[in-house]
Amino acid sequence: MGLTSSLRFHRRNNKTFLRIFMILVLSCIPGRTNLCSNHSVSTPKELPPSNPPDIRSSLVSLDLEGYISFDDVHNVAKDFGNRYQLPPLAILHPRSVSDISSMMKHIVHLGSTSNLTVAARGHGHSLQGQALAHQGVVIKMESLRSPDIRIYKGKQPYVDVSGGELWINILRETLKYGLSPKSWTDYLHLTVGGTLSNAGISGQAFKHGPQINNVYQLEIVTGKGEVVTCSEKLNSELFFSVLGGLGQFGIITRARISLEPAPQMVKWIRVLYSDFSAFSRDQEHLISKEKTFDYVEGFVIINRTDLLNNWRSSFSPNDSTQASRFKSDGKTLYCLEVVKYFNPEEANSMHQETGKLVSELNYIPSTLFSTEVPYIEFLDRVHIAERKLRAKGLWEVPHPWLNLLIPKSSIYQFATEVFNNILTSNNNGPILIYPVNQSKWNKHTSLITPNEDIFYLVALLPSAVPNSSGENDLEYLLKQNQRVISYCAAANLNVKQYLPHYETQQEWKSHFGNRWETFAQRKHAYDPLAILAPGQRIFQKTTRQLSPIQLSKSKATGSPQRYH
Questions:
Q1: CA dihedral angle for residue 326, residue 329, residue 334, residue 336, rounded to 10 degrees
Q2: Does residue 297 carry a catalytic annotation?
Q3: Which of 93, 123, 125, 134 is catalytic?
Q4: Which of 12, 39, 118, 396 has the most Cβ atoms closer than 10 angstroms to its Cβ?
C-alpha cells in the first residue's frame, strides 16, 4: 500500500471511529429545549415536540464532506429581526451540494417519525424568524461558498455563484472585469439564495425588475433531496417556483446571474418636497421615461430637525445660502433620491442629462443637494451606516420592519393617513417609498404583487432601542405596524406584504389569492413532507412519535412516512 493510500485508509478509519464514538455519546444526551423570553425575544404559540435522542445519532452517522455541530446552536437561534430565539437541534456546515442533498434525503427517510425541519440560513437577515428551524437543522449556506466566482463575458455576460455567496463579494469580483449585476438590494451583505428566495428590490427595479428577474439558471436541492438544474426552458416550473418562493420548494445552491457593463462613478442627487402629490408624480414621471436616471428611490422625513445641515457631511447644496435658511422642523417632507451612472470621460454629457431631468421636477428649489462617488461606494452605502450602528451597540437590536407593496391607485390615500396620522416621527429608522413598473417584473415567479401597472414599495424600517419607552419601544412599534396593516385592510387598498409574515394559513391564502392552489400543489410536488423553511409558517410538518423499536424498523425498511 502506497503512502497516499495508507493515509487515506487511516483517515477513513479515524472518521468511522469518531462517528461511532459520537453516536454512543449523543445517544445518551436527552433532547433539550432552551427558549428565552424577554422584552425583545419571544416564541411562537405552537412549537414542535423535541426529537428523540436517536435522531441526533442518526445525524452524526451521515457521511458528509462538511460537518454537523450541536454545541453552537445558539449562534443561529436568532435572526436580524431579533425578536425570536428558537435554537435548532443541529447546524449543518456543508462543503458540497451533496451534503445538503444527503441531509434532505435523510430527513425524508425519517418521515413523520421526527419533527426535523430545515432552514437554509444565509446572513440570517430575516425579520420574523424565517431563517430559524426550532429543534430542526439549520444549514449554514455561507459554508458552501465556492472559492471561485466564475464570470463569463460575451454578448450576454453572466456570473456563476454559490447560493451562499454575498452580493458584496460578487460586486467586487465582477468589477475586476468591468461588469456588474443589473439589479440590487439596498444592503449588499446578504446571500444570493436569501434575496432570490424573496425578490431583491432596490432603486434599479423600475428599469431592470427585481433580482429574481435577472437570473438565467439555478441549481436547487428540493425538499426531497433531489439536485436539479433549472432555467426558463429547463425544469421551468421549479425555476419560477423557487424565485420569490420564500424557501418553500428548494434550497438555492448555485445561481447564474445576468451582468452588464459597470460604471466607475455615480452622480447622486437628493431633493425635497412638501407635497406628496408632486413628489409621487415626479417619481412616476422619471420611471416612465426611456432616458432617465439609473436609480430612483425616495424616503419620508417626519419632524426632523436640521435635516439639510446633516446632509452637508456627504452632499453639497446647489445654493448654500438658500439651503441654510430651510427649516424642516415639525414638517412631513418627501425626499426624492436619484442616481445617474457614468464614467469620467462621460462627465460633461452626464451633467447635461441630469440637468435636463432635474429641470423637469417640481421640488423645493433650495433643497437640491448632490455628490459624485465611486459606483461601489454608492452601492455599499448601507454598510457604512451598519458600522456606525455596530460601534454604538445599536445594530443587534429588534427590527420590527414592515414592507408593503401598494398599488398606484391607493398610494395617495395610504400616504395621507399613514404619514400624517399614524406615524408621528421616524427618528428611529428610515421610511422608504418609491414606484416600480409591473412590466419589468416576471409574473411567472412566486412573488405576489399588486395587480396594477405601477405599484410602490413602502418600507418602514425602525429599530427598537433596548430599555426605552415611547416611540422607540418595541411594543409601541409593533402596535404601530398593526395600525398600518389594519388601516390598509379596512380601506381596501389591495396592499400586499413584501417579505410577508402571517400567523395562519388562511392569511397566507388571502395573500396568494387565486395563486394559492398552484403554490400549495408545487409545495406538495417539491417538498411533500413540508420540511423546508418552517419559519415562514405557511405549511406545518405533520409528525407522529414512534417508539425506539418502531423507529429502528422505519430505518431498516427505508420507507418514508406519508405527509397528511
A1: 40
A2: yes
A3: 125
A4: 118
